[in-house]
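hiii, so i know i said id send this last week but things got crazy w the move. better late than never?? heres the sequnce for the chain we talked about at the cafe, plus the structure i predicted for it. fair warning i was half asleep when i ran it
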Amino acid sequence: MVPERTQPSTNGKTPGSALPPVAPSPVPICWSSTPPHLGRPTTLCGSRSTRNATLRSLLSREERPLVSVLIPAYNVECYVAAALDSALAQTYDNVEIVVVNDGSTDHTADVLAPYRNRIVYVEQENRGLAGARNSAIRAASGSVFALLDADDLWMPERLSRIIPILTSRPEIGMVTSDAYIIEETVTTEKRCYGDRRRYPFPAREDEQLNEIARRNFLFISVVFRRALVERCGSFDESMRRAEDYELWTRFLLSGSRAAFVPDPLGYYRLRADSLSASKDQWSAHLSVLERHLPELWAHGARGRARDVFEIAEQLAARGDRRQAVRFFRQAVTGEDISLTTRARFTGSALRTLALPG
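okay and structure toks below
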């Protein structure tokens, strides 16, 4: 479906949410079908002071790119209003919000109805998280994309803290931050980095390839450049889980790097029925590594020997002995295992490969 783009109401009110409270936006936010910097060419005329003011305005637009907030929504009638309120409350004011209703069967569409004059709205049959995010990307106008899941929340200053990093550091293509954790409906002081994630964000940029070969170190609410999508592609719709991990790996392999704001600038909700909580998440994690580890090895990143060994066993079971040998070799030469484990891996690999193909 072609996305809706409607003019804003100047006197409408945004429905609120009781949990957790989000402060109202301290600045007016304007939504239009054509972002200001993508409209007609600006003609510089008038007095010198007027021309200088216009030039300053143009420069400020370069420093303040249009950010498209991408919100996939599937059966989130209890959460999506709060997520939208937090996006509308951003102190960074050059923003559009793209919401994709991914075939919801509950009252998500009804909850979104009062917001329709302030968002780009797309409705489609269910295509999964990757498909919904890709639809949002296609409908978006911004040069920067910001992921916001429909059950998560941002603090008002999140984009104001993150965008200057992208505009001042061209080598950085992705930025994320820490966040507080909401356990179902209970807001806590637990943090994503340190409490939920045992491992910190890599301290140095030259460690990021080695780290992505082991785990997804980027909190899901990532802000990233459109140019990366144009260069590397968007989310892999064949993946129902870990599609973000796969995309960040591609971005890093392309030479881009990620930055991190250690302050908690949002709330990440843990739900028992969420995809990230699924037992199938580990299988998806291994599928990302199977796809990208050979290229990561070429860049000097090794990955975890135990993960590599598990992938090798899966490859052997599928009959791909050539790739299995490659992964077994990497596993048994891993630097992060003991001599005992190395011997066990070697014996198991030899027995597996000795079996008739």
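btw Residues 281-354 form one domain. thought thatd interest u
miss u guys!!
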